[in-house]
Amino acid sequence: MTWSLFAVHIADSILSPMWWGGGLLVAAILIAWAAFRLAPEMIPRIGLLTAAFFVASSIHVRVGPTSVHLLLNAVVGIMLGHRAALAIFQGLILQYVLLSHGGITSVGVNVCILTIPGMIGGLLFPLLIRWKFLQSRFARWVMVSVSAFVFLVLASASVELLIAQQRGELKLFALEWDQMATLRPIWLSVWGVVALVFGWLEREWENSPTFPLGLLIGVMVASLTVVANFVVLLLGGEDDWRTLAVLVLMAHLPIIALEGIITGFTVSFLMKVKPELLRV
Fold this sequence. Notes:
The protein is mostly helical. The protein has helices at 17-35, 42-58, 73-80, 84-99, 107-129, 137-166, 185-203, 210-236, 242-251, 253-273, and strands spanning 60-63, 66-69. It has one domain: Arp2/3 complex 21 kDa subunit ARPC3.
């Protein structure tokens, strides 16, 4: 049971009835909205992305004493928008039935954790890709730098949260967030400088603006997903999962970076060969 926490697909018996019950209710609303007035031509696309989501979550990568897997909810959100809930829900059910991964009572929370960040990414991509400013080299530098900055701050915060938990100080709202070293100007400046270097390196490759935008959205969606999973485990667990919640957060840091890169390459390729799949 304990090791099943090392994923963003929470298993049964992990959350309190109030949390998994509320998750089922919100997920039902998301799924009903996604299915409302569903055009027949969307069904093959949803089926394809359900399969991609299922396969990606079946490939586990070893990280320390446990393993994690890809999420792909950013790609699903970009290609399906608010209808991402249909693909993610079906993928989660298949994972539980075929791989015993996740849970039935927790499927609602899992749908919310994966779908809502994906929908945010799906909303931002078509809006931002039309912005002429993104065609500039400076914009590409900014997008890659912001992606790196988000990742570095989250990684630093994860280490601090683990230290706080070992000291018995991790209570989410009781923790004095303004006292965290990660959020102090000196460390934010350090991560900012490092992020600008990453942005400059990408700027030299002369990539199209689609890759940096996909990278940014992929990193942001994956970060929101992992943080949401952390908060749910911290606040909604039947037992005290604080230590494991932080370890889950840390274990998924490589996945956040990988999700950004995969999303960047995926949308860059689709923009060249079939831009209508990106809803632009």
